């Protein structure tokens, strides 16, 4: 390279470069011209680094975040060979497949498609939970068959052995519960079965992992609570959000009173697709999905619900009908409520007002596609707001609005100081805190607190785009939630979303649903334990 | 000085401004490298995630494989730092300019401001096909074409050593 450049030089210049004479002083200066530039660069770099560090440290100190815990993403769970838990799956649709995958069982077709996408690595790295799926119960033959194949698959994560135990298919869940070869059940059925199945399972002494919502009808609430309370089983409700690292940091922030007195919490649902509006009985070509009266046990599907003729639409898109579900409340508000309740322990509201309607998806459904609910907690000086729209997907974050700052909790946490904060008045005046941009971002993958990062970093953090597999670890929160349940079964401890939390949630959801259906403000009578 | 004047047929200000161009681009690239080095757990993943157009598949492949991703991160950071130092010092200038141009061209091709490609990350200016990255690529090509290391830089010394050895071998 040098020589080719050299060829371009003329003879006179060559003489200087030929090495026959030492470099002249002026040439020497020209040779070394970059050194002082590099020196200035180094000084400026150190100055910039110190400035940023100082500002970051001052904010973190001001907020008392300097000793905040960064939780471990992976903690190990135990269980010897003899501790094997035999799980029965009640209902084997999409959600059950996800639960089975969390347990360490995946259908061969899914293994194949995920291998092609190269997304198997995280799953294969999942720790062996020492469980076996030994029972499947589904009213639809096709789903039951899918469940059996899943439970039999020999591809297992974490070096786990394929199941050697027999895997049974049960015609009804009652038959499964009578079987002494089942230790625990996971309920992933339409919502109207949740409470009756959980109650029956508890009475049969089987541990329960139940998908949300815990109940569908008002009269189930107290029975479910009493039955589980009086049993020895471990009950966990399927709210996996609280298992994320981010959530544990949010707990610390609330504990440190960083955002001041919170008087309003805003939660929302923002979707804009047919699938997101629970139109699920058609395939991608617009034809009805498989299943008919011969392959689906329609009476068992209906259970305690009113008798209606077979309908493939009701079977797949059951969420749309109040006979089987409470719509947005049971499906999505339940997650929102649980995350707020886990953080602030708000419990049961004094009153609820719901309103809304079917304004976009006019397909004969019962559930509202636009819904607003206001939950009042006068004892806590707090209002919880839920606003759902199924015809617009603009993101509205989950905002905890305090007098001194706002915390938006999603895939990441962003805390923005309030311009009129009393607590941070001096810091805002001094320019240390800026109300126009988040002052603290918690990035789940960075492994550290990141205050005053670059604009790009902040932007990505606010969009939750930072949750890629940095460090090579991507952990499924459902897996963590399921694992906690199994750990509690072995140790006798209480899981995160236990029956107390499930009870508070059940009352709250049913209050909001009742208010919507009866078009009136409802209240909770804590003495008689009834909605009035 | 008399000798240097005739490296090219250009005047002294013309040659010096080329050297200044090289040094400020070197400064920029060096700081880009350091700013990534100083962010704990910095990763190119967030940038690659935005990749559109012809390098999209390549970017997805990098992200799908943690080992490849960390290698790319490492090469990015230390590549930028090495190129920056090379350009500032005028050391292996042409190699630094060419590798810098290739690296920046990869950045450009990952997120080119073409009509119809939408990015979630806002840009700090307004671009149509030509962006600042592309201008910097071309500027580096200019620097690769002109021997600015021999105008001002450690390459003068390297050339001297090179020629001394060459003369010895021939002599």
Description of the molecule:
The complex is a heterodimer of chains A (532) and B (171). Chain A is an alpha/beta fold and 532 residues long. In chain A, 37% of the residues lie in helices and 16% in strands. In chain A, the strands form two sheets. Chain A has an eleven-stranded mixed beta sheet, sandwiched between helices. Chain A has a six-stranded parallel beta sheet with strand order 3-2-1-4-5-6, sandwiched between helices. The N and C termini of chain A lie far apart (87 Å). Chain B is mainly alpha-helical and 171 residues long. Chain B has one domain. Chain B has helices at 2-5, 12-38, 45-49, 56-64, 66-89, 93-110, 132-145, 148-151, 155-170. In chain B, helix 2 (12-38) runs antiparallel to helix 5 (66-89), helix 2 packs across helix 7 (132-145) and helix 5 (66-89) packs across helix 6 (93-110). The longest helix of chain B has 27 residues, at 12-38. Chains A and B meet through helix 1, helix 2, helix 3, helix 4 and helix 17 of A and helix 1, helix 2, helix 3, helix 5 and helix 8 of B.
